[in-house]
Amino acid sequence: MITRINVLIDVNLKFLYNSKGNSLNLKDFKDDVGNKFQDAETFARIMQRKELITPNQNNEFCYKLTEIGKKIYENGGWLKHLENQKEAKNKIVKIEPKKIVFYLLIIVFIFIIILLLTKSNWGH
Prior knowledge:
The chain is mainly α. It contains four helices and three strands. The protein is rod-shaped, with a radius of gyration of 26 Å. The model has no long low-confidence stretch (mean pLDDT 88). A hairpin with a 6-residue loop joins strand 2 and strand 3 (62-65).
C-alpha cells in the first residue's frame, strides 16, 4: 500500500510540474496508469502533509506544487527522493561504527602509552 502511494505521488508530481501554473484540480489527479482515481481528496491531503502541494486560495479543489515539490521533481522525482533519503540514512549508520572503532583504538593506544610510562617510572 505504501509503495503504491509513493508511486502515485511520483506520478502526480510529474503531472503537477508539467501542468499550467504547476496546478491541478482534484479531478485531474491520476493513478499510475493514467486513470483518474476516486479518492483524490485523501491523496491530496497526503501530498499536503508531505509539503509537496498546497491548496489554491481561490479554488478549494485546485492544488499547486510547492517549492519543495518542484525541487524533488527536478531532482528525479519522489521515488528518487526516497531512495536518496534511505542512502543518506545508511551512510550515517555506516560511518558511526567506524568512528567508534577509531576512538576506541586511540583510547587503547593512550592507555598503553600511559601504562608503559608508568611502568618505566616504577623501575627508577
